[in-house]
Structure formats: C-alpha cells, structure tokens
Amino acid sequence: MAKDIETTAEQGGGEFSAKDYHDPPPAPLIDFDELTKWSFYRACIAEFIATLLFLYVTVLTVIGHKVQTDPTKNTVDPDCGSVGILGIAWAFGGMIFILVYCTAGISGGHINPAVTLGLFLGRKVSLIRAIMYMVAQCLGAICGCGLVKAFQKTYYNTYGGGANELAPGFNKGTGLGAEIIGTFVLVYTVFSATDPKRSARDSHVPVLAPLPIGFAVFMVHLATIPITGTGINPARSFGAAVIYNKEKAWDDQWIFWVGPFIGAAIAAFYHQFILRAAAIKALGSFRSNA
C-alpha cells in the first residue's frame, strides 16, 4: 500500500479522525541546487566536526586502555586497571549517541560513510550530498586522529594509534564477514530508528533515534573488537590509518571499506525493498496510473 491510515480518538469526545501517512518523496539523484545553499555547507561542516570529535575521544580511549594494561608501564592489575573492551565499546557507542543527537537536525548525523551510502541507496540523500559528506567525514577523522597524535605522540606510535587491523588468528574472510554483518546491524538500525512511518504510527511512543543507533554501535563493538578492532565506519579506519601510517594498517584497509559498504547496501535493500516493500509500492502506483 502506498499509504497507511491511522485512526486516533480525540480526547473529550467520541469522534475519530483519520490521519493519512505518505512516504516522503525520494531525494533527487543529483541536485545542483544544494550547492547554492548555506544549509548544505553547514551540514558538511557539522559532519566534519562530529567525525573529528568522534575519532578524538574514541582513539584516546583505545590508547588509554593499552597504556593502562601494559605491564611495563603499570603495576596495577591489568584486568581491573583500565576501561577494558566494555569501556571501549561504551566510548564508541556513547559518542555516536551524543553526536547523532547534536547533529541530526543539521546534517542528519551520519558520521559514517557507510551510513551515508546506505541512506543514498535508500534515496534519502542526493549523490552530491553523499559524496561531500564522505569527504567531510574522512577529513574529520584524519584531523581527529591528528589531534590525538599531536597530544600523545609517543603513546600514539607505541600503542597502534587506534588503527583497525585484522587480529592474529583470523583470516581476511572472517574479518570481512564481521565488518559486513556489523555494518548491517548499524545501518539497519539507522533506517528503523529514523523511519517516518514509525513516527506516524507510533507517535504516542517517544523514541529518541540516537539511542538505538548508539546501542547498535556499542553491541557491534563488543562482538567484533577481538576480530578487527571494529571498523564499521570507513572514515574511522581511514583516518587512523593515515595518521598511524604503518604497513599492516594499510594492508587490511580494504576490509574496512568493502565490508561496511556491502553491509550498508544489504541493509538499505532489506529495509527499503523487503520490509517497506518499495518495489511493490512502485509497481502498484504504476499499475494504478496505467
């Protein structure tokens, strides 16, 4: 069905009113008018700053964990002397929750090229906006990691710079699969949490979209940190690799682009064409106009 009818009772009487829901129109594939609007550039700046802050806080957390668990640096129990994997996962998930909340009304709060690709494939953003967002995100990630290195250069170089690398004992196929599934969970959550149909149908249920998105990032990190260090964000992996600039990080870099992009594409297809039945709606509209 191209539209859903939601019936609600008016308070203080027995009358009922019907509220129609219509899917918002898809974003144009190429929209050059965006380039003439300040809101477009403001959104790109918001993506740049958000990704910068995301990498700064999370990479510092990773390095701090490694410093605190290094037996040559500390005499405390390594199992209790740092935030651990749980704390790292909270840092990533918590920062996404905060930054999506802060930037959702400006840029949509993507902070991740894989999320941007998924929303582009779902016709939520134009090609020009998607490309500019990805550029802003990658530049922000590089600058965020650069700040960490500027403040803690010795620790940064000694403890891996927060760069994503495939862990010993896992092959590239396992790493790729972990990134695909992890990114699918994230992008699927993004589509579900921001679905306008959900807002229209469940308007009586207050849903704060950044919360489930942040929790998705948190849960995926718990599962995949031991395998790949958890990428699910090509900008995060690219920025760390650029500043750390070691061979292993670059050898594995393709995993953190191919995996998230495949996962995002699958999530976009699943949500838009399976759950929302966009293809069936389009076919029904075509038949009704014929």
UniProtKB/TrEMBL annotation:
Residues 1-20 are annotated as: Disordered. SUPFAM superfamilies: Aquaporin-like (SSF81338). The chain crosses the membrane at residues 40-63, 83-106, 127-151, 175-193, 205-227, 254-275. PROSITE patterns: MIP. It is found in: Membrane. GO terms for molecular function: channel activity. Gene3D superfamilies: Glycerol uptake facilitator protein (1.20.1080.10). GO terms for cellular component: membrane. Its main location: membrane. It comes from the Eukaryota. Coiled coil: none annotated. Keywords: Acetylation, Membrane, Transmembrane, Transmembrane helix, Transport. It is a multi-pass membrane protein. Belongs to the MIP/aquaporin (TC 1.A.8) family. PIP (TC 1.A.8.11) subfamily. This is Plasma membrane intrinsic protein 24.
